[in-house]
Backbone:
């Protein structure tokens, strides 16, 4: 199980998580428009600018190793990390 309280105290993880939320929102908006659920359409200018910013932040954080924890296998936190009350 993932210790969400500790993750949200880590500002770098929060920034990476928010950039992923922007990507998800863009995909959902395009999908909803394509399915006819909403009339909102992202223009190419808006989409290009938002994606450039999100991708730049996400690439920076990936380079810093924030996105993936190389000390554990799989997607879960290590046994030791599950006991943290503050980020190390």
Residues:
């Amino acid at each position: 199980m993932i210790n969400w309280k500790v993750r949200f105290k880590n500002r770098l993880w929060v920034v990476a998580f928010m950039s992923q939320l922007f990507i998800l929102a863009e995909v959902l908006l395009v999908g909803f428009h394509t399915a006819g659920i909403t009339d909102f359409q992202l223009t190419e200018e808006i989409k290009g600018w938002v994606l450039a910013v999100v991708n730049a932040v996400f690439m920076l954080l990936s380079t810093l190793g924030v996105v993936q924890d190389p000390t554990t296998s799989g997607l879960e936190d290590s046994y030791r990390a599950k006991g943290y009350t503050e980020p190390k």
